[in-house]
């Protein structure tokens, strides 16, 4: 619920400026937003931070690490539920459009944080997964139309989850595109 509220509030330029200041002060905003985009175990991240602070590096599962998080084919944590992804992408888009593109104070450091946290790469993975899911749903709809189960005469057929997923994927892709365009418009800050 908090991520949804933050997504709505982030449409205000002053809120976005506050979020950028929070990232500069605490360095945790982008890690939290990243958790909305990919499934990561909070315990593992906290353990890694504690071990690095003690100078011990990270603890692998073979060395007794607790996380048994699933990974996708590329060895990366899987993309989170698209409802959460949508909230995270909306916040990132608003930050990019309302802060980065307008070159608000602290933006250069913020763009550097985006790069260090790997946010652009995660957004790229979200877009690829969204396109894959969208294509898969279109294929399922086409197969359903060829001799598949008959829909009720009431006109509302199919599962609500498929409709829900489709209705979430499109805004995720649109907001991700706006995020990338805003960063590109401010590309002089990246290099």
Short overview:
This protein has 191 residues and is mainly α. The protein contains eight helices and no strands. The protein is globular.
Task: Explain this structure.
There is one protein chain. 66% of the residues lie in helices and 0% in strands. It is mainly α and 191 residues long. It has helices at 2-9, 13-26, 29-37, 42-53, 82-100, 107-117, 119-145, 160-185. The radius of gyration is 19 Å and the shape is globular.
Write down the secondary-structure element order: HHHHHHHH
Catalogue the unreliable spans. 57-68, 148-164
Instruction: Tell me the distance between the termini.
Output: 36 Å
Radius of gyration: 19 Å
What would you call the structural class? mainly alpha
Mean pLDDT score: 79
Helix content: 55-70%
Tag the structure with descriptive keywords:
191 residues, globular
Q: What is the fold's blueprint, element by element?
A:
Elements: H1 2-9, H2 13-26, H3 29-37, H4 42-53, H5 82-100, H6 107-117, H7 119-145, H8 160-185
Helix pairs in contact: 1-5, 2-5, 3-5, 5-8, 7-8
């Amino acid at each position: 619920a908090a991520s949804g509220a933050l997504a709505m509030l982030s449409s205000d330029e002053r809120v976005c400026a506050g979020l950028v200041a929070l990232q500069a002060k605490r360095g945790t905003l982008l890690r939290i937003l990243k958790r909305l985009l990919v499934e990561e175990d909070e315990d593992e991240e906290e353990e890694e931070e504690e071990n690095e602070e003690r100078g011990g590096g990270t603890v692998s599962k073979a060395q007794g690490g607790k996380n048994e998080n699933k990974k996708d084919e590329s060895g990366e944590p899987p993309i989170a539920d698209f409802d959460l992804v949508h909230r995270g992408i909306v916040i990132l888009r608003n930050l990019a459009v309302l802060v980065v593109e307008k070159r608000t104070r602290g933006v250069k450091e913020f763009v550097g944080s985006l790069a260090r946290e790997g946010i652009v790469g995660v957004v790229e993975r979200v877009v690829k997964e969204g396109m894959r899911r969208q294509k898969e749903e279109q294929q399922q709809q086409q197969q359903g139309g060829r001799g598949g189960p008959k829909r009720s005469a009431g006109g509302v057929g199919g599962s609500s989850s498929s409709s829900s997923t489709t209705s979430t994927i499109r805004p995720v892709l649109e907001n991700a595109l706006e995020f990338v365009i805003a960063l590109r418009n401010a590309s002089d800050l990246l290099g």
